[in-house]
Inverse folding.
DNA sequence: CGACGCATTGACAGGGCTCAATTTAAGTGG
DNA sequence: CCACTTAAATTGAGCCCTGTCAATGCGTCG
């Protein structure tokens, strides 16, 4: 007998079950399967058939797309409570992006047949999914606009502030971005190169705004960076 | 008595009603309201409260975002059969983008309360909407990746091909993109400037790939442009 | 300690943006 | 129907941001 009820609160908190009768929550949960991934493992890759609809229980996922000849673009980071691979709901879709575990990750997965039954049975579930994807569109559109209209330094400032808010940790010196985070990844996230990122970060380091170390950054003066991000 | 049944076939064709019992189609349709717009009119603008969920019956919409100090980015063009303003389904959202009528436009609009009732009553409707928004995400992600990884000429080629497929009209000379379409708009769509677009288009004109006129473009040699888009 | 991977920095070039000057085409009103 | 106005498009010149390439430095881990 499957028992996923230990994850009830995280799913409820995410809003996915809003509007679904409470006595059904555990039933829906138990029709899914929990899967674990180790740091760096691929959850799915571009080209794989989409078979499972996935909900992040613990850890972070990096969602990226690969361009011919290697250039990578990071679509977004998934946090606990986020859902992905919703394409699995529909026909014979293949993934167009790749998801990688950042740190240890636990996911809840519903297979195609199950998620389709669930959505038909619980309309609020479909509405909540819709809600999530709309938010995603907004986020993507914002970043799209940034890519069109802002230069690298501004985009980098925005990215760092966003990541700081979502995953930063306070220390005596400032806010530490604590998961492994290379220049390359920052570049892929902001649509530039690791060289440019490195140059900008070291200039910020000289101003005393940040402390830049190997795969970690401490933000000392968030205000200065915010000012920069909002300058135009 | 409202009677929108003249629009039945266009909505059915779009797939929005897939899975909904056929005898309900007209009923759903008649709970919406048809609205018309003249060329250039704004359907909604950034900051307006989202009150109606909109389905394009006739004509085209341009969906764009404005950056501080005027730089504009075009998120996408909406064709007959597309749906937008789905945010209206949820809470007190405000639009973050602007939609403008390109040519004469007829829309079907359902107000917030109605669309919420409909989605709860007809789960397939919510699933179909979800389907549409997922496709949108894929499209946006593709263009996001393009912006990160491709140079302007390639992006422009892809954009032109995409628009050609969606809204082109065959003529004796080639495929005409028939709605008013300035260099500025192509620039806003591909994330560049009208000068760069102009230069590229006139070079393509010299190769005989396209015929470039004021606010209209005829694609004479789609293959050449496809080759360019897929080069490297 | 040596090796590997990440990060930094410099030199250089070029794609594409900016600005300005024309040219071309579409309206408009007399 | 033509002169006039206005907006779109073209084109050239200059330059700056940012990507590319190469060399070097440094942290981490086996």
């Amino acid at each position: 007998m499957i028992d996923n009820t230990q994850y009830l609160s995280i799913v409820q908190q995410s809003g996915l079950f809003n509007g679904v009768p409470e006595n059904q929550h555990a039933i829906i949960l138990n029709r899914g399967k929990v899967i674990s991934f180790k740091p760096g493992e691929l959850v799915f890759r571009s080209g794989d058939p989409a078979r499972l609809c996935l909900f992040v229980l613990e850890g972070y996922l990096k969602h990226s797309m690969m361009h011919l000849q290697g250039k990578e673009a990071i679509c977004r980071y998934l946090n606990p409570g986020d859902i992905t691979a919703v394409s699995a709901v529909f026909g014979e879709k293949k993934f167009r992006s790749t998801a990688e575990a950042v740190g240890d990750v636990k996911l809840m997965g519903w297979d195609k047949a199950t998620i389709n039954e669930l959505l038909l049975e619980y309309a609020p579930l479909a509405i909540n999914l819709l809600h999530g994807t709309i938010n995603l569109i907004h986020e993507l559109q914002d970043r799209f606009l940034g890519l069109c209209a802002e230069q690298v330094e501004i985009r980098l400032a925005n990215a760092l502030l966003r990541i700081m808010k979502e995953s930063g940790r306070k220390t005596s010196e400032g806010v530490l971005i604590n998961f492994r985070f290379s220049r390359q990844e920052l570049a892929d996230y902001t649509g530039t190169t690791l060289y440019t990122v490195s140059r900008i970060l070291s200039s910020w380091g000289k101003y005393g705004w940040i402390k830049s170390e190997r795969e970690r950054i401490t933000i000392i003066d968030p205000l200065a960076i915010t000012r920069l991000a909002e300058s135009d």
In short: Residues 151-152, 192-193, 195-196, 199, 213-214 of chain A lie near DNA strand D (CB under 10 Å from a C1'). The helical segments of chain A are 8-14, 25-30, 112-121, 123-149, 152-167, 183-190, 194-207, 222-230. Chain A touches chain B at residues 19, 65, 67-69, 71, 73, 75, 86-87, 89-90, 96-97, 119-124, 126-127, 129-131, 133-134, 136-138, 140-145, 147-150, 188, 191, 232 (CB under 8 Å). The longest helix of chain A spans residues 123-149.
